[in-house]
Write a structure and sequence with these properties.
- By secondary structure, the protein is mainly alpha-helical.
- It is built from 9 helices and no strands.
- The protein folds into 3 domains: about 110 residues; about 70 residues; about 60 residues.
- The radius of gyration is 24 Å and the shape is globular.
- The two termini are about 20 Å apart.
């Protein structure tokens, strides 16, 4: 069988033609991706700074409490100090939990808005009919499922990583926990990208159902599509590394005109490929 007759390669060729045909929409996608990156960066910086304001006192309180509890409490004043420090620690702890929750909500909202618009534009580049408000609603709902799963993975990682790090004789290594978490994240991303490619044509619940059916039954086909996308990014990365040797600024500019358009192209390629696989 000729290489060009293989489904992933045929879809790659068609996606490239669609990408060239609707090139006028690509700069808009690039701009939205840049705004998304800067927005996330700003939120991370702001919330991290506020978290530090609470985390540093928490560590200090823990150290002071350990020293006081380590000694015998000989007076009522010592007991009041310990209880007072515990109340202050809980105030800081609640603030940290609130900031963590706020971070998750803001990232979820920004991701739905910016990336939802870009996946909508990718459908337009692929010459698919789409309604923006309806598409964003579907995109936000499917992402609610994926974000919940990612939060659960995060809880799993923190809980087991901390327990293995502090245990004198851990059942599994910290490295195993890290690799397991990465594997679970990869599974979520695998199904999430399939759902993004299907929600416009199939609708919400049908898209979710087909996401798992296609993801399981057509794993080899989808893996080959993902592999092609990874190869394209690896080649781009190698080129940028060579450009970096010339000048870092040149590499940065080249990255804007290669990586970001490639991300847009990958969306178009996934949409086109999933439609063919589904048939």
């Amino acid at each position: 069988m000729k290489l060009k007759n293989l489904l992933p390669v045929k879809n790659l060729e068609k996606s490239f033609k669609l990408f060239k045909l609707n090139w006028n929409l690509v700069p808009l996608c690039i701009l939205i991706d840049i705004l998304f990156i800067f927005s996330i960066g700003y939120i991370v910086a702001e919330i991290y700074a506020k978290m530090i304001e609470h985390l540093v006192p928490m560590v200090e309180i823990m150290q002071q409490s350990e020293a006081q509890i380590g000694n015998l409490i000989t007076s009522q004043v010592d007991l009041i100090n310990v209880l007072g420090q515990k109340a202050l620690f809980m105030d800081h702890y609640i603030s940290v939990i609130f900031l963590a929750g706020l971070f998750i909500v803001l990232v979820y909202a920004l991701y739905n808005i910016f990336q939802g618009i870009n996946w909508f534009i990718a459908n337009k580049i692929a010459n698919k009919k789409a309604v923006l408000c309806r598409f964003l609603a579907r995109f936000s709902f499917v992402n609610f499922v994926w974000f919940i799963l990612l939060v659960l993975v995060g809880i799993f990682f923190v809980k087991f990583f901390m327990s293995t790090s502090t245990s004198m004789s851990p059942v599994v290594s910290s490295q195993f926990i890290v690799y397991t978490s990465i594997f679970m994240i990869a599974i979520v991303v695998y199904f999430a990208l399939i759902s993004y490619s299907l929600i416009n044509k199939l609708g919400l619940f049908k898209a979710l159902k087909n996401t798992f059916l296609i993801g399981y039954k057509k794993f080899r086909n989808i893996f080959s599509i993902y592999l092609i996308i990874i190869i394209l990014f690896v080649i781009t990365d190698l080129i940028l590394r060579l450009i970096y040797k010339i000048h870092p600024t040149v590499m940065f500019i080249a990255g804007l005109f290669t990586v970001l358009p490639l991300i847009t192209f990958a969306r178009v390629y996934l949409i086109e490929s999933m439609e063919k696989i589904k048939k």
